[in-house]
């Protein structure tokens, strides 16, 4: 597979990535170590350069404590020789522990050290506040990140699950106080969920050069076309999330995507990701894979360019 893929600047972070980021939420959960290594190998071979994970992955699994995904990625980086060549984004703010809760400064410091140890790296390329924490002044949160950047433990920071007003205030505080700016935003955004990003938040990202890296780009798998009837709900652990899409605009969206697929030869997953990558402010969607076939399909989205008419058709159906 060709590794000659176009890279995009991720806001003002200093990081570049193709228009696809590999989600690490499945590593150590629905993908065991061997499968995870195979997926990571194929992603890297196909030109992928950025992996997204979090310290909380996968604390929701019985017997897990969080950090399982980071540990697997760390082992892969060491054994593959890709450390420093493939970049890693991880997050703090959902897993309480040493130093306190959420985005308490002492918690950020302790969580960063723990993530660095699991990943086996000296610097986290992109470190996200996984969710907003209104109980801690934003000045203190940004000052905590500033210490990590100055110590060489973090290159750039991002915000995840932030509303427009809070992102704007954080950017204003950073400018006023000489603190680091959030350079990336990771929020839910896909063809069937537009309200959490479009509008004021999207405008902010464009205005301030904050690169958006959306999650749930495939609507938990619904936009792959895998779930078209109730009989399909048992196909994966995510089947329980599908009825909401089936009862809404989902069927009409799949029909429109089927038309675009017939015109382009692309799969529905590739079309969903290509639509996202074409939206203002979006640097690259995040998508996860549990098989080599899925990785190849995701990478194939990098070769799909939708026409303005195709983009408009999909946009209108989901409006």
Secondary-structure element order, as H and E?
A: EEEHEHEHEHEHEHEHHHEHH
Question: Percent of residues in helical segments?
Answer: 25-40%
Count up the helices: 11
Beta content comes to: 5-15%
Structural class: alpha/beta
What's the total count of β strands? Answer: 10
Word description of this protein:
The structure is a single chain. The protein is an alpha/beta fold and 319 residues long. 39% of the residues lie in helices and 12% in strands. It contains 11 helices and 10 strands. The protein has helices at residues 33-45, 68-80, 105-119, 138-150, 164-177, 200-208, 243-246, 250-264, 268-277, 292-300, 308-318; strands at 8-9, 16-17, 21-23, 50-52, 87-92, 124-129, 154-160, 182-186, 211-212, 286-287. The strands form 2 sheets. An 8-stranded parallel β-sheet has the order 9-8-7-6-5-4-3-10, covered by helices on one side. A two-stranded antiparallel sheet has the order 1-2. α1 (33-45) links the parallel β3 and β4 (50-52). The longest helix is centred in the middle third of the chain and has 15 residues, at 105-119. It is globular. 50% of the residues are buried.
Keywords:
single chain; alpha/beta; 10 strands; 39% helix; two-stranded antiparallel ribbon; 319 residues; eight-stranded parallel beta sheet
Could you provide a short overview of the structure?
It contains eleven helices and ten strands. It is of the alpha/beta class and 319 residues long. A hairpin with a 6-residue loop joins strand 1 and strand 2.
